[in-house]
Amino acid sequence: MKTFEELGVASPILKAIQELGYESPMPVQEEVIPFLLGEDNDVIALAQTGTGKTAAYGLPILQKINVSDYHPQALVLCPTRELCLQIADDLNDYSKYIDNLKVLPVYGGSSIESQIKTLKRGVHIVVATPGRLLDLMNRKTVDLSGVKNVILDEADEMLNMGFTDSINAILAEVPASRNMLLFSATMPQGIAGITRKYMKNPKEIVIGVKNEGNKNIRNVYYMVHARDKYLALKRIVDYYPNIYGIVFCRTRKETQEIADKLIQDGYNADSLHGELSQAQRDYVMQKFRVKNLQLLVATDVAARGLDVDNLTHVIHYGLPDDVESYTHRSGRTGRAGKTGISIAICHIKEKGKIREIERILNKKFEKGEMPSGKAICEKQLFNLVDQIEKVKVNEEEISPLMPSIFRKLEWLDKEDIIKRMVSLEFNRLLDYYRDADEIEIVDDVYQLR
Ligand code: AMP
Q1: DSSP string covering 371-426, please?
Q2: Confidence bin at 381 (pLDDT 50/70/90)
Q3: Assuming Cys at both sites, which of 113, 129, 163, 290 could form a disulfide with 107, CB separation 3.0 to 4.6 Å?
Q4: Distant-in-sequence, close-in-space partners of 394: CB < 8 Å, separation ≥ 6
Q5: Which residue has a Cα nearest atom 13 of ligand 1?
Q6: Angle at the Cα of 322 from the Cα atoms of 125 and 67, rounded to 5 degrees
Q7: Model-wide pTM > 0.90
Q8: What is the tens place of the pLDDT at every residue in 352-362?
Q9: Alpha carbons 188 and 165: distance in angstroms, whole number
Q10: How far does residue 211's CA lie from ligand 1's centre (Å)?
Q11: Ligand 1 in contact with 76 (CB < 6 A)?
Q12: How far does the centroid of ligand 1 lie from the alpha carbon of residue 401, in Å?
């Protein structure tokens, strides 16, 4: 396998991607980077999100920019605002050490005036959704005559969204001498039309492997008001009486607070974070490993040292900042062919993060229904009955005690005894849920693309 350096990536970009933790090129990068660094090279790549395609085209186009010329030299077209912002962010990250390089995201729904102002000051790369770019072109505020590289990202999606005419109108304004790169997850008919019309002898690349996340993991999210997050956590945990999982928190303080609350509320929980001594951490980890602890509340960093990955559930008490952490956390469940559940308890402000994770994993989240108090009580009750049925009786140890126990309970009939036994565990929940308000799931008008 080649290194980024061997592919021809220049040193300021190498430095930036090293900081991002990109150690070696992904397959699509290995194929596309050297090719795009050359001249007159068109590419059609069948590659999905999560394959590393942004860097595959991003690094070479950044490298080819002449920073002293403040005209758009590269144009990236993509279907949605979210993707547009994501690409622009990535390009900014990659060009951290190239002084004065300007990337402008252009998309509908944001102020066109400020986009025009920035264009006037001069930009090198425009990342745009087709509709808004066409609008700017019609106002004569964007000059595409110096564009040397055009990228169509998620081309199939753009066609699905009805952007074919806009794309044609935009490409007509770009000099014919440019390189063109088209990325698409599928190759519908319309794409063939575009490639025939605008591309010269394109190299075709098919990239199969993508970061799909684990197929055995169900990703579920519950969107609640920030004030209800802890209550929601309790409900979810109550709804899965046999849960064996990690609750990931964002800070040490939050980790400790949540663990303390859970312990106070009678759960078999403990905390793991960097403020504990090594001995304390070892003790908690061991307890969790041997399943003497049902719920471990932990920070990402502290949980790294824990070699447990056969969890039934991973709970994100708030989503992490980056998708890698999400995948890393969730990868601790759904192992060995079993289905694991990765549950995000989040508030409305985290909606964008869910979309981003969905996009990168190319997998949709299920919207969780908050279990009602009644449903939880029922589930717990049946779990208890199940345990009674399955418990292993140690005849030898218990038989000497049984005569006195029978004598004591003689006055109760079988039905009474069962009721009492079950109530012993059940009352705690019943008391709690009898008066508990139902938790409102925030109606987030959440629409998937
Ligand atoms: P993309 O397909 O461009 O959305 O990229 C998917 C994810 O892979 C993003 O989170 C990138 O930051 C990450 N990524 C891209 N290239 C590399 C690399 N060579 N090494 C590690 N991670 C990468």
Answers
A1: PPHHHHHHHHHHHHHHHHHHPPP-HHHHTTTHHHHHHHHTTS-HHHHHHHHHHHHH
A2: confident
A3: 129
A4: none
A5: 52
A6: 20
A7: no
A8: 888 888 888 77
A9: 16
A10: 9
A11: no
A12: 64
